[in-house]
Every structure is written in structure tokens, then in C-alpha cells.
């Protein structure tokens, strides 16, 4: 399971002022905590700072990379911000995101190619947001085929099927699961990621829904998620699910986590 730590995001009340004030200690502490908890990538997102986003994202990339060893997921809808973030990043970054929208695809693709970055492929095209599994499968197929034709390796593509809240559509959970199943069967080796907590937006006891949905989605082929690595229960479920799904040779990772007291029942 590839965990993308979600906590450095200016949509969170405590993070926005820290980024505005360039509070490196706060940001670096949050980055280190996520890495130590098992995050494979640290997401950096300052999309709420619209006027200063390019400068702020560049600062975040530099500041976070000073104290951690894992790469970053550079997360922005703003091409200029992505450009600045990629230029500041050391090593192979994950770009969040490209879509099948014509203008967006044409703007983001050259950056991915230039920096040899991996990419989150968001299943949205010029017709808008997907409504069901068929929409997601169709757009994902278009994106994967085009990215591969443009020289992006399958292992560098992270398809995001766009999780939307079940509170507004009771069948959304099934739409996503069916899409994941079909995409991973059609394109063996492609990654599937998601903003996991979107599934529970607006509902009480959100952690329970997030935890249950992670296990369900992993059973269909999800192998990555943008989520909170400081949530010990969901991290434990990810470790246990990987083991039960045959992704943990000799249960080595599970045993290591248990011996390190990193599993929560």
C-alpha cells in the first residue's frame, strides 16, 4: 500500500497560517510525523492561497525536503505552481494531477516528461465529473492510453477514480469499487489512488467509513491512497489488508509492524 500523507494542506485550519507565516518548524514537524508513521509520499498543497500559490508551493517543497527522505506529491490545479514545485523538488516527484481535459493535459504533460515525474491521473474530461463506473472506466482508459503513448510508464501512472461522498449518492461506493476492479483488470500494473476521506464527507464518525472503505477498495485493486498516516487504525488496516491480499511475502511487513508495536486493534 502506497500511503500519501495528506496533512500538509492549507485547507486545514492550522496549516494555512503556518504556510502564510512561513513557519518552517511547524511544517517540518508535520512532515516528519507523517514519514515516521509510514507515509511513502508527503502531499504538499497550498491551493487556498490563490494569489501566492506558486511561491508558497515552492517554499513548501524546499522546506519539507530538508527534513524527510521520502518524495513529495506536489498537489495543485495551478500549472505555474506545479512548475515551481517540480523545479524545487529533488528526485522523482508525484504530480497531482493531470486530467483528460484537453487544455489541462497539454499543459501538464510536458512538465511530467521534463522532470521524469510520476502522475496522478484524475478521471475527468471536458464533459465534466464522472457520474458512474462506466464514466470512470472510459476516462481512465483514455488517460492511460494517451500517457503511455506519450512515454509515461504504466508504473508511474496513479489513476484517481474521483471519490465523491456517499452522503449525496448512496451508490457512489459501488461505482468506485466497480471502476477500480475493471481498470486494474484491464491495465495490470497501473496504480489506483484516491482521496479516501471524500467518501465520508458530511457524515458522522467519518473515520469508521474511511477505514471500512479502504479495506473494500484494496480488495478491488486500490494500492495507494491520499490519507492520514497518523490514524493508527487505518494504517493498521492497510498493513493487515496487504497481508491478506497476498502482497506481503511471508507476512514479513505484518510481523515487523507487530514487533514494532505499530498495529492497533
Provide a brief overview of the structure.
Helices cover 47% and strands 14% of the residues. It has 265 residues and is of the alpha/beta class. Strand 6, helix 7 and strand 7 (191-192) form a beta-alpha-beta unit.
List the helices and strands and how they pair.
Layout: E1 2-9, H1 15-20, H2 24-36, E2 41-45, H3 53-65, E3 72-75, H4 79-88, E4 94-99, H5 102-115, E5 118-122, H6 133-149, E6 157-160, H7 172-186, E7 191-192, H8 206-220, E8 224-227, H9 232-244, H10 252-259
Parallel strand pairs: 1-2, 1-8, 2-3, 3-4, 4-5, 5-6, 6-7
Supply the key terms:
265 residues, alpha/beta, TIM Barrel, 47% helix, transferase, methyltransferase, cobalamin
At the third CATH level, what is the topology name of the largest domain?
A: TIM Barrel
How many H/I helices?
A: 10
Distance between the termini: 19 Å
Q: Tell me the series of helices and strands, N- to C-terminal.
A: EHHEHEHEHEHEHEHEHH
Largest sheet: 8 strands, parallel
Could you name the ranges where pLDDT drops below 50 across 5 or more consecutive residues? none
**Which class of secondary structure composition applies to the elements?**
alpha/beta
Domains (count): 2
The H-level CATH homologous superfamily of the largest domain, spelled out, is: Dihydropteroate synthase-like
